[in-house]
Amino acid sequence: MEGESHHAIVRHQFGGRAQAYLGSPVHARGEDLDELVRLVGARPQAHVLDLGCGGGHVAYRLAELVGNVVAYDLSEAMVATVAAEAARRGLGNIAAGQGPAERVPFADGTFDVVATRHSAHHWHDFAAGLGQARRVLKPDGMAVFMDVVSPGRPLLDTWFQALELLRDPSHVYNRTVAEWQAAVTAAGFRPGPVSRFKVRLDFAAWVERMRPPETHVAAIRSLQARAGTDVAEYFRFEADGSFTIDTMLLAAQPA
Ligand SMILES: C[S@@+](CC[C@H](N)C(=O)[O-])C[C@H]1O[C@@H](n2cnc3c(N)ncnc32)[C@H](O)[C@@H]1O
Fold first, then answer.
1. Which of 91, 109, 158, 195 could join 86 via S-S bond, C-beta 3.0 to 4.6 A?
2. Which residue owns the Cα nearest ligand 1 atom 19?
3. Which residues sit with their C-beta closer than 6 Å to ligand 1?
């Protein structure tokens, strides 16, 4: 992996793990997906972009409500997996596309809804990705940003980013809700309501999805064993290493 760009590291990390993300219960289900479905509602004419689609769980849920969905991801393997799964589910209105969020190959104002879930914390140029989301959204469209978020306090933030990076070198940065709101505003959106969620990560499954080296797994467990009570209690560290994180859904409209 030495000498690879960040995008190459993302493709490498996710490339071999597409089936794991397709089958992952924490990705396939969630209160945030239910809320997304409520927000979007039935829009039979709508064109939707799922930016950083991973295993395609946003695309599958929305395809039942809207005209069509483009499931777009940097990883060729993810895109191929979503295309095959959409066909298996009989969702003929999902098209898959490959490329970076920072440069999407769609015309200005193409989509009625742009959604992204648990992907933006991997983008090497977050502002560029948000700018692309804004560019391809129709003037009366809706953006829905869903991601893992940092609790904000420096103590908790440093611990969280450290655990994430040890597990996955494609991790860039978990932002706070306030950082998201500021970035979305700077990209030309008017941020709307925010919903927050707690998500429990089963340690064995969390590690297995990314398969870090054993030394990194040992380092994560060692860090957890040395955490202060405020960190251990906030993330609800469990004996087997499982822990609980924050996620959010932020809806926004073009400003
Ligand atoms: C955790 S998975 C996404 C999960 C998925 N959206 C879901 O709801 O289950 C993160 C995905 O973001 C993609 N990704 C990371 N950086 C990207 C970028 N710069 N452009 C496009 N996709 C990116 C990865 O390839 C990976 O498939």
1. 91
2. 123
3. 10, 14, 21, 27, 52-55, 57-58, 73-75, 78, 100-102, 117-119, 122-123
